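REQUEST FORM: STRUCTURE PREDICTION
Request ID: SP-0412
Submitted by: Lab K.M.
Chain count: 1
Length (residues): 132
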Amino acid sequence: MTASSTHSIVVGYILWIFGFMGAHRFYYGKPISGTIWFFTFGVLGVGWFVDLFLIPSMDRSADRRYKAGPIDYNVAWLLLTFLGMFGVHRFYMGKWISGLIWLCTGGLFLLGYLYDFWTLNEQVSYANGEPI
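STATUS: Completed
RESULT:
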Protein backbone atom coordinates (compact mmCIF):
# COMPACT_ATOMS: atom_id res chain seq x y z
CA MET A 1 0.00 0.00 0.00
CA THR A 2 1.53 3.30 -1.09
CA ALA A 3 1.14 6.68 0.58
CA SER A 4 -1.31 7.76 -2.12
CA SER A 5 -3.38 4.58 -1.86
CA THR A 6 -7.09 5.32 -1.60
CA HIS A 7 -8.48 1.81 -1.85
CA SER A 8 -7.42 -1.38 -0.11
CA ILE A 9 -7.00 -4.85 -1.54
CA VAL A 10 -8.14 -6.28 1.81
CA VAL A 11 -11.37 -4.25 1.70
CA GLY A 12 -11.76 -5.25 -1.95
CA TYR A 13 -11.64 -8.92 -1.01
CA ILE A 14 -14.00 -8.41 1.92
CA LEU A 15 -16.48 -6.83 -0.48
CA TRP A 16 -15.72 -9.55 -3.04
CA ILE A 17 -17.21 -12.06 -0.63
CA PHE A 18 -20.44 -10.16 -1.35
CA GLY A 19 -19.48 -10.10 -5.04
CA PHE A 20 -22.74 -11.59 -6.17
CA MET A 21 -24.07 -8.11 -5.29
CA GLY A 22 -21.22 -6.37 -7.12
CA ALA A 23 -20.06 -4.48 -4.01
CA HIS A 24 -16.37 -4.84 -4.88
CA ARG A 25 -16.96 -3.52 -8.40
CA PHE A 26 -18.79 -0.46 -7.10
CA TYR A 27 -15.96 0.03 -4.60
CA TYR A 28 -13.36 0.14 -7.35
CA GLY A 29 -15.37 2.67 -9.40
CA LYS A 30 -17.04 0.26 -11.83
CA PRO A 31 -20.76 0.98 -11.33
CA ILE A 32 -22.00 -0.44 -14.63
CA SER A 33 -20.42 -3.86 -14.14
CA GLY A 34 -21.36 -3.65 -10.44
CA THR A 35 -25.00 -3.27 -11.44
CA ILE A 36 -24.70 -6.19 -13.86
CA TRP A 37 -23.18 -8.30 -11.06
CA PHE A 38 -26.00 -7.18 -8.75
CA PHE A 39 -28.77 -8.35 -11.09
CA THR A 40 -27.05 -11.52 -12.37
CA PHE A 41 -25.50 -12.74 -9.11
CA GLY A 42 -21.98 -12.07 -10.38
CA VAL A 43 -22.90 -13.32 -13.85
CA LEU A 44 -24.00 -16.59 -12.32
CA GLY A 45 -20.86 -16.87 -10.23
CA VAL A 46 -18.39 -17.08 -13.11
CA GLY A 47 -17.55 -13.36 -13.17
CA TRP A 48 -17.43 -13.36 -9.41
CA PHE A 49 -14.77 -16.10 -9.46
CA VAL A 50 -12.75 -14.35 -12.20
CA ASP A 51 -12.75 -11.18 -10.09
CA LEU A 52 -10.75 -13.07 -7.46
CA PHE A 53 -7.79 -12.59 -9.80
CA LEU A 54 -8.73 -9.12 -11.12
CA ILE A 55 -8.96 -7.33 -7.77
CA PRO A 56 -5.26 -6.34 -7.61
CA SER A 57 -5.46 -4.56 -10.98
CA MET A 58 -8.80 -2.94 -10.07
CA ASP A 59 -7.15 -1.70 -6.87
CA ARG A 60 -4.22 -0.13 -8.74
CA SER A 61 -6.61 1.55 -11.16
CA ALA A 62 -8.73 3.01 -8.34
CA ASP A 63 -5.59 4.26 -6.55
CA ARG A 64 -4.57 6.15 -9.71
CA ARG A 65 -8.07 7.52 -10.31
CA TYR A 66 -8.96 8.82 -6.83
CA LYS A 67 -7.01 11.10 -4.51
CA ALA A 68 -6.57 10.60 -0.78
CA GLY A 69 -7.86 13.11 1.75
CA PRO A 70 -9.36 13.40 5.23
CA ILE A 71 -12.33 11.17 4.37
CA ASP A 72 -11.14 7.59 3.95
CA TYR A 73 -12.63 5.67 1.02
CA ASN A 74 -12.30 2.35 2.83
CA VAL A 75 -14.21 3.49 5.90
CA ALA A 76 -16.91 5.12 3.78
CA TRP A 77 -17.36 1.96 1.69
CA LEU A 78 -17.48 -0.40 4.66
CA LEU A 79 -20.05 1.84 6.34
CA LEU A 80 -22.13 2.01 3.16
CA THR A 81 -21.98 -1.73 2.52
CA PHE A 82 -22.85 -2.85 6.02
CA LEU A 83 -24.76 0.10 7.54
CA GLY A 84 -25.83 2.06 4.46
CA MET A 85 -29.55 1.92 5.03
CA PHE A 86 -28.98 3.76 8.33
CA GLY A 87 -26.99 6.54 6.64
CA VAL A 88 -23.88 5.98 8.75
CA HIS A 89 -21.59 6.57 5.75
CA ARG A 90 -23.28 9.94 5.18
CA PHE A 91 -22.78 10.96 8.79
CA TYR A 92 -19.11 9.96 8.43
CA MET A 93 -18.75 12.30 5.43
CA GLY A 94 -20.39 15.17 7.33
CA LYS A 95 -23.67 15.01 5.42
CA TRP A 96 -25.89 15.25 8.50
CA ILE A 97 -29.19 16.18 6.82
CA SER A 98 -29.08 13.42 4.22
CA GLY A 99 -27.76 11.06 6.92
CA LEU A 100 -30.90 11.74 8.96
CA ILE A 101 -33.07 11.24 5.88
CA TRP A 102 -31.32 7.91 5.20
CA LEU A 103 -31.76 6.91 8.84
CA CYS A 104 -35.50 7.67 8.85
CA THR A 105 -36.28 6.16 5.44
CA GLY A 106 -33.96 3.15 5.24
CA GLY A 107 -31.69 4.79 2.67
CA LEU A 108 -34.55 6.49 0.84
CA PHE A 109 -36.36 3.16 0.67
CA LEU A 110 -33.17 1.49 -0.60
CA LEU A 111 -33.13 3.56 -3.82
CA GLY A 112 -30.69 6.00 -2.22
CA TYR A 113 -28.60 3.03 -1.18
CA LEU A 114 -28.20 2.05 -4.85
CA TYR A 115 -27.48 5.69 -5.75
CA ASP A 116 -24.69 5.77 -3.17
CA PHE A 117 -23.22 2.53 -4.54
CA TRP A 118 -23.00 4.29 -7.91
CA THR A 119 -21.58 7.58 -6.62
CA LEU A 120 -19.75 7.09 -3.31
CA ASN A 121 -16.24 7.36 -4.76
CA GLU A 122 -17.14 10.69 -6.36
CA GLN A 123 -18.83 11.88 -3.15
CA VAL A 124 -15.69 11.11 -1.15
CA SER A 125 -13.49 12.80 -3.78
CA TYR A 126 -15.69 15.89 -3.62
CA ALA A 127 -15.65 15.90 0.19
CA ASN A 128 -11.85 15.62 0.04
CA GLY A 129 -11.71 18.77 -2.10
CA GLU A 130 -11.10 17.12 -5.46
CA PRO A 131 -13.11 18.32 -8.46
CA ILE A 132 -15.32 15.63 -9.92
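NOTES: The first helix runs from residue 9 to 17.
Reviewed by: T.R.
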